[in-house]
Design brief:
heterodimer; A: 208 residues; Rossmann fold; 7 strands; B: 467 residues; 5-stranded mixed β-sheet; 4-stranded antiparallel β-sheet; 17 helices
Chain lengths: 208, 467
């Protein structure tokens, strides 16, 4: 019995030392699931939130018959020019709009036409070269004008930060809302369900 | 084919590939064994002086590609490790802004803010800072609320320079949130400068921002709201910020002193249209208004939670010291009165001596590492310019103009709004980490967990700054 107990104690010591060594040693890059909670998390928007947000918006929009089942596919622009970040988290809104556009475009499979306004300068330059005869008309022929827009996807990111100075608990609620605006009538034809995340954290007392 | 078979085939293929590899390429891939041996020998010697590094050749290689005036700051950053990282990065960032090294400044503040936002839970250094036997300065420095707020403020200015108004807005908003670490409710959200800048960046992003501007003016009635056509933000920073020092019987209190010897109290920007701009533009002088005093912000925060811990440590130390001196005195008296057998008195006196040693081992000193290059007063104004211009600043004191040369003016106009920023006093105050305790620094750097953390920190630096 005594030997058995000594054995268990020794095993615990070895395992404990191994765990300590593991926590102290660094490790090389590892693949993490972008849809799951990462190794390092904070109170702001993370990659998994962007993916969830994008997924929910795509499902929502593609279930609207007035939008996707029209005889002529509607033309829409999805970029970050009207994705306003009013929150206290510094972030690159292109990351959200790019993810949304890619997911929506792939899922729509031609039922929605996507227009780029970010490449407008390049488009104008190429059109000018073609019309001057400096380059040929390529393989698709020439259009009378660049494509006009039916809708623009806009969005706003806001946050509400709070702190309990007694406990040091900090909390941040972030809300993202997307809205589809008819660019002819200015009607808001769709608004997403508010995507809300609320996370809290507490720093060590020596930093309070 | 079995797994073993696949592995065998792969190894064979690899061996073939290696055998066909040109000899010269193999030589280039493998370092000279003599050089490797020489370096290992050198590192063994350096280890006695520098511990786990960084070693002189690593420091020289990291610092070499940096702009000359910033080299000492980069050296301090690399050698200061994670413990002083936020402070060294913040000082480097401000020095880089003064030297117009924008990329360096942006990277420095990004790294600093990442660390400010890091939550320390079960951190051995934070635990040490709380313990009776270690000084507070064992902890990684994150700064006081005003210092954290100012790090966000400078990052916000850099975003404004680039025309990224959304992220500028986020930075100023977070800066303002840092300032809410105030025990006194009515002193929260009183950093008018930050409220004003939240409003301004909203306006530049195409929003209104009226509420934030109104909040700033309510705190600082000298300020005026930006006009509807205003597109230039003017900022001047005057003097130097608060000076931290220790106070109290056991040096357990951190108090702020006001930096003196800076007579400047006002600033005027002259904006002169450059050639090629609209003819209707005329030169103009724009006086600035006081938005905030960093010293005021530092002194109105109220107590820190850490003060309570340090007070407890100091009180315990004082009590132990009193007991020790009392016990020693009693012991000595007993020895004097005991005649031929002083043993009892000696035992009591030795107990008193032991208590005295016990008390002297207690560490109560407050941490006074500080961001010394911060300004005191920050003045602000807005105006409208409908073409390119150059800006220059002059400063005034209570008795008229003062002959101070401003630091080089930061002027940026990447988007809808332009920003002009300068300082009356240089941020290049020397690279040594102000207020640091060299003994604590050396002792902490030897800890195993810190050695690991610092190695990772140096790898991060190389990745972010290159080199």
């Amino acid at each position: 019995m005594k030997q058995w107990l000594v054995g268990v104690a020794a095993l615990q010591l070895v395992l404990g030392s191994a765990a300590l060594a593991q926590s102290k040693n660094g490790h090389g890059a590892v693949d993490l699931d972008p849809t799951a909670r990462g190794n390092v998390t904070g109170t702001g928007i993370e990659m998994r939130d962007i993916i969830r947000m994008s997924d929910s918006l795509v499902r929502d929009l593609l279930q609207r018959p007035d939008f996707v089942n029209s005889p002529k596919p509607p033309r829409i622009v999805v970029d970050s020019s009207r994705l306003v970040n009013k929150s206290s988290q510094r972030l690159d809104t292109d990351m959200i709009s790019d993810n949304l556009r890619a997911s929506l475009m792939r899922a729509a499979a031609g039922r929605i036409r996507f227009i780029s306004r970010e490449a407008m300068e390049d488009v104008a330059q190429e059109r000018e070269l073609k019309r001057q005869g400096q380059v040929d008309v390529a393989t698709r022929g020439m259009a009378k004008a660049v494509a006009g827009l039916d809708f623009k996807l806009t969005g706003r990111i806001t946050s509400l930060d709070s702190r309990n100075n007694t406990t040091g608990e900090q909390q941040r609620a972030m809300q993202v809302v997307f809205e589809l605006i008819d660019l002819e009538t200015s009607e808001s034809v769709y608004i997403s369900e508010p995507f809300i995340i609320q996370r809290g954290q507490r720093d060590d007392v020596v930093y309070r | 084919m079995t797994i073993r078979g696949w592995a065998g085939a792969s190894l064979l293929a690899l061996a073939c590939a290696v055998s066909q590899f040109p000899a010269a390429a193999q030589d280039a891939a493998q370092p000279d064994p003599a050089a490797v041996k020489a370096r290992e020998q050198q590192v063994r010697q350096w280890k006695q002086t520098y511990g786990e590094g960084p070693y002189p050749d690593e420091i020289a290689a990291f610092v070499a590609p940096r702009p000359e005036p910033l080299k000492p700051y980069y050296q301090a950053l690399l050698t200061g490790g994670e413990r002083n990282a936020v402070l060294n990065l913040s000082r480097l960032g401000l020095a880089a802004m003064e030297l117009q090294q924008w990329a360096d400044a942006e990277r420095a503040y990004d790294m600093a803010l990442l660390r400010i936002e890091t939550v320390y839970s079960k951190d051995p250094r934070a635990e040490a800072a709380r313990s009776l036997w270690h000084k507070e300065s064992n902890k990684d420095w994150k700064g006081e609320a005003y210092e954290r707020a100012m790090a966000y403020y400078y990052r916000g200015l850099l975003y404004l320079r680039k025309g990224d108004y959304n992220n500028a807005h986020a930075s100023f908003k977070e800066a303002e949130f840092q300032d809410t670490v105030s025990e006194t409710e009515n002193l929260q959200s009183d950093f008018a400068l930050l409220n004003y800048l939240v409003g301004w960046s909203s306006q530049c992003a195409g929003d209104k921002g009226v509420e934030d501007i109104d909040r700033a003016i309510k705190t600082q009635p000298e300020l005026t709201p930006p006009g509807p056509t205003d597109n230039v933000l003017l900022i001047a920073e005057l003097g130097h910020g608060p000076i931290k020092r220790r106070d109290g019987q056991q040096k357990e209190k951190m108090v702020f002193g006001e930096a003196t010897g800076f007579p400047e109290s006002g600033a005027v920007f002259s904006l002169v249209p450059t050639s090629g701009g609209p003819k209707a533009m005329i030169p103009r002088a724009v006086p600035l208004h006081l938005a905030s005093s960093v010293y005021y912000q530092a002194t109105t925060r109220g107590g820190r939670k850490m003060d309570g811990i340090l007070n407890g440590k100091a009180s315990f130390k004082s009590t132990t010291e009193s007991l020790a001196s009392g016990t020693t005195a009693v012991g000595l008296q007993m020895m004097n009165q005991s005649g031929s057998d002083p043993t009892g008195g000696m035992v009591v006196a030795l107990a008193g001596l032991g208590m005295s040693l016990f008390a002297s081992a207690m560490k109560t000193d407050a941490d006074i590492r500080q961001w010394d290059s911060l300004p005191d007063k920050v003045l602000i104004s807005t105006t409208s310019m409908n073409g390119p211009f150059t800006a220059s600043a002059s400063f005034t004191a209570a008795d008229g103009p003062t002959p101070l040369t401003p630091t080089p003016v930061m002027q940026g106009a990447s988007g809808k709004c332009a920003i002009v920023w300068t300082r009356s006093r240089s941020a290049l105050l020397g690279a040594d980490t102000p207020g640091d305790d060299p003994k604590v620094r050396a002792a902490v750097a030897r800890k195993k967990d810190v050695v690991v953390k610092d190695k990772k920190f140096r790898a991060d630096l190389a990745m972010v700054f290159g080199g």
